Automatic annotation (TrEMBL):
This is Calcium-transporting ATPase endoplasmic reticulum-type-like protein. GO terms for molecular function: ATP binding; metal ion transmembrane transporter activity. It comes from the Eukaryota. The keyword Transmembrane applies. Its main location: membrane. One of its GO terms (biological process) is calcium ion transmembrane transport. Keywords: ATP-binding, Magnesium, Membrane, Nucleotide-binding, Translocase, Transmembrane, Transmembrane helix. GO terms for cellular component: membrane. It is a multi-pass membrane protein. The chain crosses the membrane at residues 28-46, 52-74, 241-261, 273-296. Residues 9-40 form the Cation-transporting P-type ATPase N-terminal domain.
Amino acid sequence: MVSACYTVLHEDQRAPFWKLVLKQFDDLLVKILIAAALISFILALINGETGLMAFLEPSVILMILAANAAVGVITETNAEKALEELRAYQADVATVLRNGCFSILPATELVPGDIVEVSVGCKIPADMKMIEMLSNEVRVDQAILTGESSSVEKELTTITATNAVYQDKTNILFSGTVVVAGRARAVVVGVGPNTAMGSIRDSMLRTEDSKETMVYLQNALTVMTVEVTPLKKKLDEFGTFLAKVIAGICVLVWIVNIGHFRDPSHGGFVHGAIHYFKIAVALAVAAIPEGLPAVVTT
C-alpha cells in the first residue's frame, strides 16, 4: 500500500514584522553600537547638556542602525515573497490512471506510483519518470527550475550518471514545469517536498532560518545554498575579534588618561573621568564599521 504523501507545498506561517526587525539587531557589532549610543545619551544627560548637538552622536548612530535594519527587513521580505511564488507553480489538476481509466483529479491526490498523462499546455503536477511517448517528441519549458531559455526535449532513455543535474535528467518531468510540445505518460516518482521544486523551497526555508547564503538566478527560483560559508565564518570571527580589540583599546585609552582626570579644565575628577570615557566611546563608534551588517545581509 502506497503512503499518501500529497503533492502540496504547505504554506508556512510568516514571521511577524516585529520579529524581522529584532532579528536585524542580533549581531555583536550592532549591539556594541546600541550600547555606545545609550552610553553617549546617558553621559549627555549627566553633564546637563541640552540642545540638538548634545544628542547628535547617539542620534546618528541610531539612524544608521535603523537604516541597516530596514535593508535587512526588505531583503528577508523579498525572500518570503519568493517562497510564496513557488506555490503559484503548482498544478491544480492531473490526468491520472485510476480504476483502469484516466480521470481528471486534483493534483494534491497524486501519490508515488500513479500513472499520469500530460499533453501540450499541461503543468506538471509532480516529479515523474516518462514511460511512454504518445507523440514524436515531448518538449518541456523548465526555465523556472534551471533557467534555460529554450524548451528541453524529453526522452525515455534512463540516465545512469550519478549526481546528474536537472538539465541531464532528460527522462524526468519536473513538478511545476510546462509541456510545450507533445504528449506522454509518466509514473510519479516524487511529490510534495520530495520534488525538485519542493527541495528548492525547503532549501530556501533552511537558508532563512540559519542565515545561510542564498543566490537567486533567472526568476529567483534557482537557489544555491551552503550550510555555513567560509565567508560567513570569517565575518563572525572578525566581528568577535574586532569587538575584543575595540573594548581593549577603549579601556586602555581611559586608563592611560587617569592622570588627567584631575585637570582643572574638566572641573573635577568625576567630570574628567566622564570626559575621557566619552572619548573612549567615540573611539569605539569610529572603529566599528556600521555598514557591515547591511553589506553582509544583501
